[in-house]
Design a protein that fits this description.
alpha/beta, CBS-domain, 2 domains, three-stranded mixed β-sheet
Length: 258
Amino acid sequence: MSDELFVKDVMSKPVTIAKSAPITEALDKMLADGLDPLIVTNNGGVMGTISRVAIAETLGSKKTSTLSPTKIHVANKTDEDFTSVYPDEEAEILIPLLQEYKVVVVLDEEHRLIGKVDATDILKVMKPETTTYNLLQNAPVIGPEQRVIHLRRRMIDEEATKFIVTEEGEILGIVTETDVARAMRDFRLRVEDRHQDNQIRTILVGDIMTSPALSLEYSADVSTFIDLIVNKNISSIPVTRDGKVAGIITKQALLVAL
């Protein structure tokens, strides 16, 4: 890595959301810009971040079931634990920070927000020297006929946010915290409160999964995985070997490999 590479060479334009905005607006902005998390601001200052996982948990919780999603504000789900750097610091400082935080906030000398760096930003300029074998992780799998409420429970219990949807060994799609958040938002807006407890049980994984799922063979070069993740702005890629699920490669694994 060149010593001449600085934070300002890596950072991109920050996308923000006001703490007073509804979480539905935050989710719409995340989906439109392909970002997770968003930087939360208040009166021009950074107060934290909000993630798709946090939104999915909120919209799927019984505690908020009587509230319209448009009435739940970003401030209620803001994570105030964030980290920041300055533009003239060496870019190398970003690697350990991004292994702990999903986004690094870039501030100028007057502590004004001027940029952000996330995994996609850094993988555009830094490539880990490793192998597919070293990056491969076990992939949680789920069937398309499983209920979304069961999926949510598994996400919590297994601390997993991405599941490969399979049927008889064939990959049908992928389902993530983003799919759950979007499905819960749409459901809550569409179904009246008194019917939600019964009808939410009818939503199946196959109804909300992203299909077809982009996947690559185990023999693919690591650079191919990186290019696909960066260009498609996705967080993970299922890996197959001889047509069967071998595992998954994620942005986080690539960051750790740096």
